[in-house]
Specification:
The complex is a heterodimer. By secondary structure, chain A is mainly beta. Chain A contains eight helices and 57 strands. In chain A, strand 56 and strand 57 form a beta hairpin. Chain B has helices spanning about 20-25, 320-330, 365-370, 375-385, 385-400, 405, 410-425, 430-445, 455-490, 510-520, and strands at about 35, 40-45, 55-60, 60-65, 70-75, 85-90, 95-100, 105-110, 115-120, 125-130, 135-140, 145-150, 155-160, 165-170, 180-185, 190-195, 200-205, 210-215, 220-225, 230-235, 240-245, 250-255, 260-265, 270-275, 280-285, 290-295, 305-310, 310-315. Classes of the chains: A mainly beta, B alpha+beta. Chains A and B meet through strand 42 and strand 46 of A and helix 5 and helix 10 of B. Chain B: This is U3 small nucleolar RNA-associated protein 15 homolog.
Chain lengths: ~850, ~525
């Protein structure tokens, strides 16, 4: 039986990928981006995440390739440290402790051993003043280095990382803040300031948004809030500077970037169009439109072949030279609020919530990866601030995942609300949802709740929706009697109301025989078969907030929470209140796989969690202060494999896992100790020393290869290919024409001898690998080492051949006999080569 | 880089009847041929043998028309008074007709003069028919009697005087030469067996019986009288099966479609209704200009012939297969060049590398303009299309927040074009929500130029009238709705709901209410 520790609340995936601009590795095979508290290394060709560089304890605020070694990367974080990583292997090399929160990091090849950081102005930490400081990184062998010698370079800079940039070869640094551009020349130790007026005559706003420097030329490009781009020249004079203006963007330019050769300038903004300007021929522009969402950052690979744009919807797009989108790295999209509840797709077991405007996203919790976006609205998205867009506000799955119901709405300023209820059927062939029925204006006012009948054996599927217009409606799938060519579609089956009260929530019982609809403080229970009002339950005062039927053995209970801090449990057999308790429940939800229910209570700015069975008075699990703020969205996700836990307090996590969203839109979950251990173990297994991108395909084949490897190891020889080819005897045997070969008996002894060498090899190899491990650790710091993964093999070979051919022992003779019987698998190796 | 998503054209529910297989079948007739007769057409009968001529009894004569001729191929005029009930014998050789002067005349179809005259009735004879053995004639008369006559001898065989009012319809069995059924204005149907001297079965229709029809199997009998059509099971001793009340005036004529699956009934309310004979639901409906007295279907439903009180004979012929195909064929767009189909059926060989070309997205004209953000042009191009499309584009422009730009800056012609569209579609409930916003904006934009163009001013006035009228209609509808609510509230028994604390449940009267809501909208 597995030992179980306490239950912990942990962050689980879905962090923002686009808070800082991504960085290409020098060979453009990897893309590094700051993601929450770690740096993620993605493959640019396969979109897979290869490494998580974990170590920072707060948000990572900057990622930067080390100018002197392109296999190492600096990352800075708000926790006041700069860390140096080897990103190909995912190893932390050094930690420099700065001591102040860092907002961005810069370096230049011209300034060796110095990094430039943006920290809060030291005088007082509260203020919004930031300064650029230079830090001389101390040379020392230790892992943890204190680097507290800061020298201020520029004061009063912007905390926006795009607002500071190194100029040609690191000769100068340009910083924009507010309405002022400042250029600091390192040689002259002199700064020039170029202020702009707040508004120009035509009402444009001149505030600087971003800065980029030409790599070969003395030219600084700045982006402005009104969509203009200015190209500054001659700025090493205080008075005689000039600038030219480019204008295409209709709103603020959020990112600018020169290509490495300086032939093109890339710009992007909220229009989600990547604009490519020819340097010195600015009238020629190329556009790459409809990239999906507002562009926040642009990066270019060192060879200029790949562009990469970060978008406001947590997406990174990799573009092949401004022509074609080659890869999309999509993170979990979290807007300001989750309008639809968190849901689980019963088929893919993925988390479903509203993502991009007008889309529903399917997010795999196990793999921390966005599976796909389902376009609900199916309209061209207009990128313009202040425009009212259609939003997906409600969604529901039925029990089998065959049907998905979505509600989209658009609230105009003056005119009436636009509402659409859409029902999607799962298509087995295309493996996606296909629109079945669109009901425009299903209700006259906003829909407050929607749920499917979850009965497994029911003949027809039923959907209930409640609306602020005072009605609730039941929708049913019905075949159209008249036309045979069309499939069944959904239509309204029943409209119900109760005393002109507004229905707030609805819930079907587990067997689908009852529908509970709450009308403010009254709960009405209806029979979906006859649409009779069976009973009403109420516990005034206080409107009902949540309704939940019990499941399995507790299916006779109906639970409700009221705005008046009351959690009530009604017994439906007696139609009376079974128990009630006074607590301010912000969210009540039922585990679909067990009787358990979870209640998030908000108390004094913190949220407590209670897990209980409706039939038992004592909660199974309770945890005070799970997080700060109110929890309004949570979901029980079924586990892929059941946990076996005997401890009572963690038994409720056996079947399913509880995920919730905090006030700050962090996705959290509860884990047990054993689960974490298992996760750690599995992640260690997955570490791959190869530089090949880790794709599912690779895992499949790689595993196979590994197994083959092990088999051959256990069987006879260590090396797969080097053995036959490396041996002179074998090579001779294969290269000589058959008719001039000596007799087979002669060849046999030669061949056997070549095999004998490898037997000793196997033994020594074990020793060698151990040595290698140690030496590798020592060599980690060495900067010249390029291919640490392939080197050991080579050295191993050479050593193996050196220590060859000792005398035969008895054991070896036995081994030899066995070898003779073995299949000559080396032939396969030969065929491969 | 996602592709441009074209404007979504909303599919509106089709107003009016749903298109069913039946609708398609019964709609598949050509425009009617109309022939004016001298008086009300009381009977139409198709000859059972090819070429299926039909006899039309109107006023004092009987015309026989060929299947496709508009002129009668033959006319029987030797009636002294109004003729009734001209019928063919089952071999199509002989023809019998009753007359107001109580004489029944038998004709050879090729001759002119009556072969036989059956005299014996004392009043007008409205019913004549041949029995299935072809040698006897059944007649029914206003003198309350029905008689059987022998054709070779021209003698009366039997007389039944059981009805107590005019006998206006009758039918003979096609399977048994002795059985026949008569219907009378005394509300009864009587089944007679010529071997017995009395009626063997009597059924009460409840209304004066106008028409009778036997199913081909002769197990079921259909009678029409008053507003009712009733179906009787003869094998169960005349038990009523169904009573249909779908007409709002007297049903005058009944007819079965060729395969016996559909029943047609014609009525004075100018409608012909088609029933499904398995569930007796109305599946289709024809409208005619005047009250219908007679109706007949050609074998294989090749044509529907209807005679009306104003003497107009309407003949609808079924569209031939090629014709109906031609129409559907025209709708299909075919590639104009052979090059489009070239290589379509080429099957790639084993080692062939298939290069797939990216599919080019075809956009409608207005979508192309929308893609370029040319909002005014997009609206202009959409105005030339169907109103559904125009409304969808207006809605899309509104969503983009550029509807005002698209509407503004128009000259007199452009504005009157727009206003014309508004006048045409503003009050359509499907489009009203979108068009009201657009109209609002137009008035805002162009209020300063009102009075400068007489064309625009006239259109604005028309729009105003239209809106005022519409508002009145809506007012009336709300009133009706209120009345209905009261009626339902009073008619529905209030049901007590088990309730522990308070409040009785005011439940809506389930589905009916819902339907009324929809109907009202």
């Amino acid at each position: 039986m597995v030992e179980h520790g306490e239950i912990r609340v942990v962050h689980r995936g879905g962090s923002k990928l686009t808070s800082r601009d991504p960085v290409f590795s020098s060979d453009s095979r990897f893309l590094l981006c700051a993601s929450g508290e770690c740096v993620k290394v993605f493959s640019t060709s396969t979109e897979e995440c290869i490494h998580d560089l974990r170590g920072h304890t707060e948000l990572v605020t900057g990622v930067l390739l080390r100018p002197s070694n392109h296999l190492q990367v600096y990352s800075c974080s708000a926790d006041g440290t700069v860390r140096l990583w080897d990103f190909t292997d995912g190893i932390l090399i050094k930690t420099y402790v700065i001591g102040y929160p860092i907002y961005s990091i810069y370096a230049s090849a011209n300034h060796e051993g110095v990094i430039f950081l943006v920290t809060p102005a030291q005088s007082d930490k509260r203020s919004e003043m930031f300064q650029l400081v230079a830090v001389q990184l101390p040379q020392s062998g230790d892992q943890l280095v204190e680097a507290r010698e800061l020298s201020a370079v520029l004061s009063d800079v912007s905390s926006n990382p795009a607002a500071i940039v190194f100029g040609r070869g690191g000769e100068y640094i340009a910083s924009a803040n507010g309405l002022q551009l400042e250029v600091y020349f390192f040689k002259k130790q002199k700064a020039y300031r170029f202020p702009l007026k707040e508004d120009n005559k035509k009402g444009g706003k001149n505030t600087f948004m971003c800065v980029a420097c030409h790599p070969k030329d003395d030219c600084i490009a700045t982006g402005h809030e009104d969509g203009k781009i200015r190209l500054w020249r001659n700025f090493n004079h205080k008075k005689e500077y000039t600038y030219s203006t480019l204008h295409w963007h209709h709103s603020a330019v959020s990112s600018l970037c020169f290509t490495p050769e300086g032939t093109n300038l890339l710009s992007g903004g909220i229009e989600s169009v990547l604009v490519q300007w020819r340097y010195n021929q600015e009238s020629q522009r190329d556009f790459l439109p409809r990239l999906g969402a507002a562009i926040t950052h642009i990066a270019v690979s060192p060879d200029g072949a790949l562009f990469c744009t970060s978008h406001s919807d947590n997406k990174i797009t990799i573009i092949q030279s401004c022509v074609k989108v080659s890869a999309v790295i999509q993170g979990l999209v979290k807007g300001e609020s989750v309008r639809t509840d968190l849901m689980m797709d019963p088929r893919s077991k993925s988390l479903v919530l509203n993502g991009k405007p007008g889309h529903l996203q399917f997010y795999s919790l196990q793999r921390d990866k966005l599976l796909y976006n389902l376009d609900i609205v199916q309209q061209e998205y207009i990128h313009e601030s202040g425009l009212q867009q259609f939003e997906v506000v409600k969604a529901a799955f039925n029990a089998s995942g065959n049907w998905l119901a979505t509600v989209e709405e658009r609230k105009q300023k003056a005119a009436e609300l636009e509402l659409n209820l859409k029902l999607w059927a799962y298509d087995e062939q295309t493996q996606s949802f296909v629109l079945n029925t669109t009901i425009s204006a299903p209700h006259e006012a906003q829909i407050t709740a929607m749920c499917f009948c979850h009965a497994a054996d029911s003949q027809t599927t039923m959907l209930a929706s409640t609306s602020k217009d005072g009605h609730f409606k039941a929708w049913q799938l019905a075949a159209q009697a008249h036309t045979e060519d069309e499939g069944p579609s959904w239509s309204c089956d029943f409209v119900g109301a109760y005393h002109d009260l507004v229905p707030e929530c609805c819930c079907f019982s587990a067997d689908g025989s009852l529908l509970a609809v709450s009308f403010q403080e009254v709960v009405t229970v209806w029979s979906p078969a006859s649409w009779e009002l069976l009973t009403t339950l109420s516990q005034p005062p206080g409107a009902i907030r949540d309704l939940c039927f019990g499941r399995l053995s507790c299916s006779k209970y109906l639970l409700g929470t009221s705005a008046n801090n009351l959690l009530c449990c009604w017994n439906l057999l007696t139609c009376s209140l079974e128990w009630s308790t006074s607590m301010d429940v912000s969210l009540l939800l039922a585990d679909p796989l067990s009787e358990n229910m979870a209640a998030f209570c908000c108390q004094a700015g913190c949220t407590d969690l209670f897990v209980f069975k409706p039939s038992e008075p004592r909660p199974l699990f309770s945890r005070k202060e799970v997080c700060s703020g109110k929890v309004t969205r949570a979901v029980f996700a079924p586990r892929e494999e059941m946990l076996e836990s005997c401890e009572e307090s963690s038994q409720w996590l056996n079947h399913s896992q509880l995920y919730f969203l905090t006030q700050y839109m962090d996705l959290m979950t509860f884990t047990t100790k054993a689960e974490e251990d298992r996760l750690m173990a599995s992640s260690k297994q997955l570490v791959i020393d190869d530089s090949v991108a880790m794709t599912p395909f690779y895992l499949l084949l790689g595993k196979h290869r590994q197994q083959e490897n092990q088999d051959s190891l256990g069987g006879m020889s260590a090396e797969r290919t080097p053995l036959p080819q490396g041996s002179v005897a074998i090579r001779e045997l294969l290269q000589t024409p058959a008719h001039v070969l000596p007799s087979t008996s002669y060849l046999c002894s030669m061949f056997v001898q070549s095999l004998l060498i490898s037997v000793t090899d196997t033994r020594e190899e074990n020793k060698h690998t151990e040595e290698e491990m140690e030496s590798e650790k020592e060599e980690e710091d060495s900067e010249g080492e390029m291919e640490s993964s392939t080197r050991p093999k080579e050295s191993l070979e050479s050593e193996a051949t050196e220590s060859a051919a000792p005398a035969l022992t008895k054991a070896q003779a036995r081994e030899l006999r066995r070898v003779k019987k073995l299949d000559h698998s080396w032939l396969a190796g030969l065929l491969d080569s | 880089m996602a592709s441009f998503k074209p404007t979504k054209i909303q599919v509106y529910p089709k107003l009016g009847e749903k298109v069913t297989q039946d609708t398609l079948y019964w709609k598949n007739y050509k425009a009617p041929v109309q022939i004016k007769e001298f008086g009300a057409i009381t009977n139409i009968d198709f000859s059972p043998v090819a070429p299926h001529n039909f006899a039309v009894t109107a006023f004092t004569r009987v015309h026989i028309y060929g299947p496709f001729s508009q002129e009668p191929v033959k006319t029987f005029t030797r009636f002294k008074d109004t003729a009734y009930s001209g019928r063919f014998r089952s071999d199509g050789q002989l023809f019998v007709a009753g007359c107001e002067d109580s004489v029944v005349r038998l004709f050879d179809v090729s001759g002119k003069v009556a072969l036989r005259m059956f005299k014996g009735h004392t009043k007008a004879v409205h019913v004549t028919d041949f029995t299935s053995d072809r040698y006897q004639i059944l007649t029914g008369s206003d003198d309350y009697t029905c008689r059987l006559w022998d054709i070779p001898n021209a003698t009366e065989l039997t007389t039944y005087q059981e009805h107590t009012d005019y006998i206006r319809c009758g039918v003979t069995s096609k399977l048994n030469r002795d059985l026949f059924i008569t219907g009378s204005y005394d509300h009864t149907l009587k089944v007679f067996d010529a071997r017995a001297d009395k009626s063997v079965m009597t059924m009460d229709h409840g209304q004066p019986v106008e028409s009778l029809l036997l199913y081909p199997s002769e197990g079921l009998l259909i009678s029409a009288g008053g507003r009712y059509v009733k179906v009787w099971d003869l094998l169960k001793g005349g038990q009523p099966l169904v009573s249909l009340k779908n007409h709002h005036k007297t049903v005058t004529c009944l007819c079965l479609s060729s395969n016996g699956q559909r029943l047609l009934s014609a009525s004075l309310d100018r409608h012909v209704k088609v029933y499904n004979t398995t569930n007796y639901k109305v599946v289709h409906n024809f409208d005619y200009a005047a009250s219908i007295l007679s109706l007949a279907l050609a074998p294989d439903d090749e044509s529907i012939v209807v005679g009306m009180t104003n003497g107009i004979l309407s003949i609808k012929h079924r569209k031939s297969l090629e014709e109906s195909k031609e129409i559907s064929g025209q709708q299909k767009r075919r590639p104009s060049y052979r090059v489009f189909v070239k290589g379509k059926n080429y099957v790639p060989k084993q080692d062939d590398y298939l290069v797939s070309k990216p599919v080019k997205q075809h956009l409608a004209k207005y979508d192309k303009q929308l893609k370029k953000f040319n909002v005014s042009k997009a609206l202009d191009t959409a105005l030339e299309r169907k109103p559904e499309i125009t409304v969808a584009v207006i809605k899309e422009l509104d969503r983009r927040g550029t509807l005002k730009n698209a509407l503004a800056g128009r000259d007199e012609q452009g504005l009157s074009h727009l206003l014309n569209f508004l006048i045409g579609n503003m009050v359509d409930p499907r489009f009203a929500p979108v068009l009201v916003t657009a109209a609002d904006m137009i008035l805002d934009i162009y209020q300063s130029v009102i009075g400068q163009s007489p064309v625009v001013d006239r259109q604005l006035l028309r729009l105003q009238e239209l809106l005022e009228r519409e508002i009145d209609y809506q007012q009336d509808l709300v009133e009706v709705l209120g009345m209905l609510d009261t009626m339902f509230a009073s008619s529905l028994p209030r049901k007590e709901v088990p309730c522990q604390h308070c409040s009785k449940g005011g439940i809506y009267p389930s589905k009916k209410k819902v339907q009324f809501y929809h109907a009202a909208k």
